[in-house]
Specification:
three-stranded antiparallel β-sheet; alpha+beta; seven-stranded mixed β-sheet; Nucleoside Triphosphate Pyrophosphohydrolase
Length: about 220
Amino acid sequence: MRIKEFESLKGKLPTTPCLEGREEYFRSVVLLLLVPICERYQILFEKRASGIRQGGEISLPGGQYDDEDVSGEATAIRETVEELGIPKGRIEIVGRLDSIFAPMGAMVDVFVGVSDVSLDELKPNPDEVEKAFALPVSYFKEYEPEEYKVMVEVHPSYIDKKTGENVVLLPSKELGLPDRYWKTWGGFTHKVFVYQTPEGAIWGITARIIREFLKYLYH
């Protein structure tokens, strides 16, 4: 590297580092939407329709980035409008939480918003939402989540369930990598939080978002 090239490099390095490989993650956005019920704010949830990805699970409104969305905030509002039928003009974004990186290769940006909409006014899209409901913020303060762990491993190959063939993703041996990488490696644990609620278990990324929200609210 020439001295001139080094001087040029100093001006190109980011002042605010981001995540390298961000584009390789499945990127989505969710909205933690607060609605007033009985003069107290409650968190709006939806139970996903059985025919879609992660069907039957409880989640916050949201979805994948669209190329036409000008920002993550735009994605959060668009998805909430599409899924729950809330008019765009009745959603106000008040801030955001830290992004979440899940070990299964997903990255979720989290926004916080408020709406004056009532539950009776919601018009859930039956193709995506089985039902919508709300739970008081205070419920999650009173009932802390149960904490579990899962084991996360790296597999350089896998068996195709349809053909029975071994599909090699990383030819570790042929590449001359140490033999510990020829088979499954890793095995680190990842925390999983579960809130037990009257509407069912709220867990995984959704539970982690609620837990993070409470930290900002009460600490």
